[in-house]
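Weekly modeling sync, notes
Attendees: S.R. (lead), two postdocs, one rotation student

Agenda item 3: backlog of single-chain predictions. S.R. asked that every request posted to the team notebook include the full sequence so nobody has to chase files. The rotation student volunteered to paste the first one in as an example of the format we agreed on. Action items at the bottom.

Example entry:
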Amino acid sequence: MYYYQRIKDLREDSDKTQREIANVLNMAQAQYQLYESGKREVPFHIAIELAKYYNVSLDYIAGLTNDKRGLTKSELPKDETVLLKKYRSLSPQNKGRLLERLDILLGK
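Predicted structure, as returned to the notebook:
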């Protein structure tokens, strides 16, 4: 997904018009429309303002993650975060083995 689609989706999800967002950013609606359509690159300072306005991360706006909080923030407890990092470092085959063992432990 391109970042300009992300900012359009964020605007539409918040039931705002291009004019309303342009006003928040102190610019003309026509200028904002160029960003949202992908015809102009969004300047970094504008991306920051959009992230603040929508309360999402720059990672999310850039399309690097589908988690609005971003790549580095997590609400997981520390032990779950460690477990997830270890899981991600496994080969696909070992991920499968681990999931099979978890099913056994859970009685499934």
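Discussion: group reviewed the output briefly. The domain at 3-62 is CATH 1.10.260.40 (434 Repressor (Amino-terminal Domain)).
Action items: rotation student to repeat for the remaining queue; S.R. to check formatting next week.
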